[in-house]
Amino acid sequence: MNIFLRELKANLRSLVVWGGIVILFVSIGIAKFSAYEGNPEMLAILDQMPPGLLAAFNFDAFNLTTITGFFGVMFTYFALLLSISAAMWGSDIISKEERDRTVEFSLALPVPRGRLVTAKTLAATVNCIGLLIITWGVSLANVAKYHPDSQFYAFMSLCMLALFILQMIFLAVGVFLGCAMKHCKRSSSVAVSLLLGTYFLSVVSGLNKDLDFLKYFSPFRYFDPAMLLHESRIDVTFVWLSAGIIAVCMVGAYVSYSKRDLYI
Amino acid sequence: MSIIEVDNLTKYYGKARGIIDISFSVDEGEIFGFVGPNGAGKSTTIRLFCSLIYPSGGTAKILGKDCFKHGPEIRREIGYLPSEVFYYDRMKVIDLLKYSASFYGKDCTKRLYELAEIMDLDLKRRIDDLSYGNKKKVGIVQGLLHQPELILLDEPTAGLDPLMQRNFFKLIREENEERGATVFFSSHILGEVQRMCGRVAIIKEGRIVKIEDMKTLQKDNYKKIRVTADDVDEKRFDVDGVRNLEKDNGAVSFFYVGDINVIMRIISEKEVSDVTIEEPTLEEIFMHYYE
């Protein structure tokens, strides 16, 4: 409990910074919507663009001139922001002890290493949930003036659920890298590179039907905002796949951390 | 009862040597010195005791329990002062010490304040505002506040001013004599080991070259003898057991190993004006093992 609380306190500043980024992003993003709202000329411009490009940015599935459609397009960017923060928190919360050389203190305390990983992962999870709530709240506040319908709110809740699962995937990947990598200082940059890699994979896999199988390798394709909107459900296969990835990463994290030599 | 039992403990970092085949044991209530230059493997040994790293071979037991299987249990009874201390920079000293105390399942508050008083530590400051020496003081208080049975000191005096060093040694002696704590004292400053320790192990390039009582180590070794006389003839002293015979400024000095009566007779054959016979310092013994 004491480790968990200390970590929460130590990470508060980082949550505030990320919260600021999200607030700025959402406010500017939704403010831009006023240019699209009920503007048929915008649709005409989009119609002239190559279909592959539109698919890459999710422009094809949504009607950008409605707030629901616009939010659907923004989902991708939320996903990127929230998962980058989760990956960084995950790797950092473990590796910072070695980076700052505090392991010689924190692991000489009478605590099993496993409990340390648990407490730290929980603290990072709270941070992720905090950022998700900020995202949700700021979005709600910003879309209110466009008087969205009830379908929008249902869609938004599903989006938040999908974002939460994405956060947890990348948090677990981050924790695993923080625990397992010998050069712990690099773990957060590796985590973010991996994340961007899978993001581009998701873009590539959307361009060509033959590459569709790649979607299993990119969590960004697990939760298609078009499906969230039109079918109002999350694909259960991918929920299981996500749970699997999280479980494997966490088991890997515990096993490798309890066996490793700490770098001092 | 042995507090520490080490048997053929070996640690390689990849191909780099840490320690090789180290075996020794430390009894309850001892102050055991662990002496060697930088890079000999002193810190490696202590980090193995705390299971911060895992061995390549051999075993280490503390309080009869395997260090690597019962790490958390053992660490509850260990007070560890690393050679360089690093704490969470943004915490206040008092918060850090209370955080540390919260892991031991007992109330350490009284002892915490006592120790802070002895070490003259300002509890209200932030860790990152502290000088190196002050951080070391935090380390001393943090390592001792839970009244551990075994105190592991890794070059403890670096960064402490002479006054604080004196307080620190007094404190360690009290912990040892009044509470019966066992002390494992690693250092390359031989004077302090000589003052504090009953037994000492000398470690060289990862291997232990000698474990001996401090007294025996000094007694069985050579004596430093210096004879001053008018017109002294150094050739008289050139007998078995004499080394490093030198003459300077009307005096002869040499190292001697052997029957003390033999050399006494030679000295008293002629009139002398002064004689000094000294035990070697640990430093001199140490240099002998490192030649």
Quick description:
The complex is a heterodimer of chains A (264) and B (291). Chain A is an all-alpha fold. In chain A, 75% of the residues lie in helices and 0% in strands.
Percent strand of chain A: under 5%
Q: List the chains of the largest interface with their residue counts.
A: A-B, 19 and 27 residues
- The helix content of chain A, as a percent range, equals over 70%
The profile of the biggest β sheet of chain A is: none
Give the termini separation of chain A.
25 Å
Strand-and-helix sequence of chain A, N→C?
HHHHHHHHHH
Q: What is the β-strand count of chain A?
A: 0
Strand order of the largest sheet of chain B: 6-7-8-3-9-10
**How large is the count of helical segments of chain A?**
10
Multimeric organization: heterodimer
Proportion of residues in β-strands of chain B: 25-35%
Written description of the protein model:
- The complex is a heterodimer of chains A (264) and B (291).
- With 264 residues, chain A is an all-alpha fold.
- Chain A has one domain (2-259).
- Chain A is 75% helix and 0% strand.
- Chain A is built from 10 helices and no strands.
- In chain A, helix 6 (113-143) packs antiparallel against helix 7 (150-180).
- The longest helix of chain A is centred in the first third of the chain and has 35 residues, at 2-36.
- Chain A is elongated, with a radius of gyration of 20 Å.
- Chain A starts with a helix and ends in a 5-residue tail after the last helix.
- The relative contact order of chain A is 0.14.
- Chain B is α/β, with parallel strands linked by helices.
- Chain B has a 6-stranded mixed β-sheet, sandwiched between helices. Chain B has a 4-stranded antiparallel β-sheet with strand order 2-1-4-5, with helices on one face.
- Chain B is elongated.
- The chains are: A mainly alpha (264), B alpha/beta (291).
- Chain A binds chain B through residues 2, 6, 10, 100-105, 107-112, 259, 261-262, 264, and chain B through 13, 47, 50, 52-54, 71-73, 75-76, 78, 80, 82, 84-90, 99-100, 102-104, 142.
